[in-house]
Design a protein that fits this description.
195 residues; alpha+beta; 50% helix; 7 helices
């Protein structure tokens, strides 16, 4: 199980790496925000409430990829633009999360931060996942990098997500917590870059 001293090492690594990367990523992030604003005709930076460490809520930052579409029946639907789909598939929409890492809401590696209704409802031993900060990447994120495509093939995507994918993610993230090492975090970061 990850210890208090290991959590300090993990946070120190996150802070150092994010401050090193920030000068390299700042201009690309600003360019992507501007492009997304033109493409979606909305603010290019998107934020959403997610469940963080110890179940505390925080705002996650992403590049906006969805555009509002109004149908003749009057209801609103959000769908990814062609450019937005490319940004999502290439994971460039995740770049602003470096600011989440700097302020301490997130880590480079950990369980993905979920919307309300998942991690905040964990019970018993499963709640150990909430000891660490959620991550930009991690073992479950890598395994389910094509999650949207998997869900699109299901007759009942929501039930499949809750009963199959989410249950598996909990197991994967518990295993990550129980076997944490600095080397493991480096491995997942490298795998995320090359995959």
């Amino acid at each position: 199980m990850i210890t208090a001293s290991q959590l300090i090492v993990k946070r120190a690594f996150d802070l150092i790496l994010s401050l090193v990367l920030l000068p390299l990523l700042l201009i690309p992030i600003l360019v992507l925000i501007a492009i997304a604003a033109i493409d979606t005709k909305q603010r290019g930076l998107f934020s959403q409430i997610r469940v963080g460490q110890h179940g505390k809520l925080f705002k996650i930052f992403k590049i906006r990829t969805l555009k509002n579409k109004f149908h003749r029946l009057g209801h609103l639907e959000k769908s990814a633009t062609k450019l937005g789909q490319f940004i999502r598939n290439s994971k460039l929409d995740e770049l602003p999360q470096i600011f989440n890492v700097i302020v301490g809401h997130m880590s480079f590696v950990g369980p993905r931060p979920d919307i309300i209704g998942f991690a905040d409802e964990l019970e018993g031993d499963d709640r150990i996942i909430l000891i660490i900060k959620p991550g930009i990447t991690g073992p479950a994120t890598l395994k389910y990098k094509d999650e949207e495509k998997m869900l699109a093939l299901q007759d009942d995507p929501e039930t499949y997500n809750r009963t199959i994918i989410w249950a598996d993610k909990v197991k994967i993230n518990k295993n990550y917590m129980e076997n944490w090492s600095f080397y493991l975090d480096l491995k997942y970061i490298i795998q995320s870059i090359i995959s």
